[in-house]
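Example 3.2
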Amino acid sequence: MSSHVAYRHSPSHRSWWGLVPFGLAVAAAALIGGLGVAGTAGEYQSLDRPSWAPPSWLFGPVWTILYAMIAVAGWLVWRRAGWTTALTVYAVQLVLNAVWTPIFFGFGRYGLALLDIAVLWVLIGATVLLFRPVSRAAAWLLVPYWAWVTYAMALNAAIWHAN
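Structure, written as C-alpha cells:
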C-alpha cells in the first residue's frame, strides 16, 4: 500500500487536476484573442486578402481544437517533468499568441503583428523541440498548431503587403 502512495504522488503521475491551470491559461489566451476580434469581421472582409485566405467563420473552430491540444501538450510535459525551461518557453509563446489578435485586428498594425507571429513561430518550434524528449505526444500535439501559425504568418504577410 505504501508503494502505491509513493507511485501516485510521483511527478510522472500528476493528477488530471493539473490540466485545469493549462486549460485556464489557454482559455485566457483565447479570451484575449476573442476580445481582439470582437466586431472586426467586417474589417477582415474589407481587407485586400489573398485568394487562399480562409473565411472568417473558420477561425473559431480551428482555434478551439488547437487550444485544446495546446493545453493538453503543456499538461503532459508538466506531468512528466514539472515546471521546466520547456514550459517557460511554452508560456511565452502563449502570451505572444494572445497578443497577436489585438495587434492585428484591434490596432490594425499588420507589420507589428507579423513580427509577433514570426517570433511566435520560432518559439512554437522551440517548444516542440523542448517537449519532444519529455513527451513525444506533447510535441506532436503542437505540430498542427505550428502548421496553422505557419499558414497564419503567410496570410499576415500577404495582408500587410496588400494593405
